[in-house]
Amino acid sequence: MEYQYPMDYTWSTDEIVDVIKFFESVEKAYESRVSKEDFMKTYRRFKEIVPGKADEKNYTDEFQVSSGYSAYLVLKRAKEIEDGGWITLKK
């Protein structure tokens, strides 16, 4: 990994850790697999920290530019599969 996670330095330490967990779950979907349950848990927490759609898009787009991993596509796939399923995407 040779990129940085996008973040707002006004967030608390716990919020930064939780945002990083969300981006790590996006990485897992591409590099191996992540359970829908785990991904959605990190996404819901991310949305508590970044509630606005525009801000969400800015952070996830910044992450995609630096990493090549699309949070949008992982979320889209998560909505398509049944509960208890696994999310796997290839770059």
UniProtKB/TrEMBL annotation:
State the Pfam families in the record.
Answer: UPF0223
Residue span of the signal peptide, if any? none
Q: Which SUPFAM superfamilies match?
A: BH2638-like (SSF158504)
**NCBIfam families, alphabetized:** PRK04387.1
Instruction: Output the HAMAP family linked to this UniProt entry.
Output: UPF0223 (MF_01041)
The family classification in the record reads: Belongs to the UPF0223 family.
Question: Any idea what this protein is called?
Answer: UPF0223 protein HNP81_000304
The lineage is: Bacteria, Bacillati, Bacillota, Bacilli, Bacillales
